[in-house]
Amino acid sequence: MKKKRIVDERISGQLHIYGYQAFNLLFVGLMISTFVKVFVLRLDLKDWLDSFLILMVACGYYAIRCVAGGVFSMPDREDEQRSLKRKNLIANGIGAIVFGALSFSFDASGSSRSELIRNLAGSLVAAIIFFAGMTWFSLLYRKISHRINEEKLK
Asked: What pTM value is reported for the model?
């Protein structure tokens, strides 16, 4: 007669931690791989599209599951909400600056002076659109997550 394995809370918690750590390692590895292929090696699209798509699917799945689970709920206190929104704006601003700089550096190689000005203007517009889109999206998913969390608590 075989004994059934008993999984207590400690073992279950450890399994969740290991899964979380493995996902983070894979995520960082794919992000570094994609970054190196695109910006350092400057490979063609067909050479790095698979890594990028796997990375985007994983990010999308994670975001959808977190929103559906009510993880990104807004805090109850007003000062914590302002602090969270401020941090969100700072993070989106840094992301837009990095996006604009990478976009400009990628487009600027081997360009004439007039093309550089046009590329800079295009990169600035793209960075502003990136900032506005990410800010809107992050506020939207926090609002949806908060609503789902409130419904689960009723």
From this structure: 0.65
